[in-house]
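Form P-L/3: holo structure prediction, ligand zinc ion.
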Amino acid sequence: MTSEFKLAPSILSADFSDLKLALSQCEDGGAHWIHVDVMDNQFVPNLTIGPPVVKSLRPKTNKFLDVHMMVIDPENLVEPFAKAGADQITFHIEATDNPQSVIDLIKSTGSRVGISIKPSTPLSEIEPFYDQIDLVLVMSVEPGFGGQGYIEESTDRIKNIKQKLTEECLQDRVLIEVDGGIKLHNAKEVIDAGADVLVAGSAVFNTDDPVQTIKDFYSL
Ligand code: DX5
Ligand code: ZN
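OUTPUT (holo model):
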């Protein structure tokens, strides 16, 4: 039986013309979180959704809204997303010269704080902030698009983060979320490496039965 974990389906892979369906599939499947991929076509070469979409989703679901900001100048979008109803706001360490101020700003809104790290960024960039955040979002693909393949080297990075958090007695407070290329066939490997939350976009929404697929993840 796979240890307790949370699934966070990414609506980036859902049908944007019918996000209400994606919400109901997450509800019916029993997903814990809903992962909202925000892209500004500057930090990553793609443009997706912003605070108005989160504002529309908020009243339609009680699920935890997990906002992943792949944007430059993340501090400019923190309050709009918090006001829109985000439960957690995650920014990229590569997107700001002053991560401390972004952490402080997110905390001031009452949202949970996440830091995300791209596959090639050294883990040492985020280690100084472990004791101030709620979550580390490990990118297991290059950010920008759903449907990519899991980068195998990510598994050792997850183990390394888990080990460091444990050394600092933070492993029960700081969650590890893994994002990109997560499928039913590799989910257990990622969980066993130390992941607490798995993002799954195409693995869920690019199937004939997203509700059953979500349930399949939880029966791993
Ligand atoms: C990529 C996003 C991911 C992506 C996951 O930049 O941050 O959340 O949507 O999609 P899959 O699960 O298809 O790799
Ligand atoms: Zn994401």
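COMMENT: The chain has one domain: 6-218.
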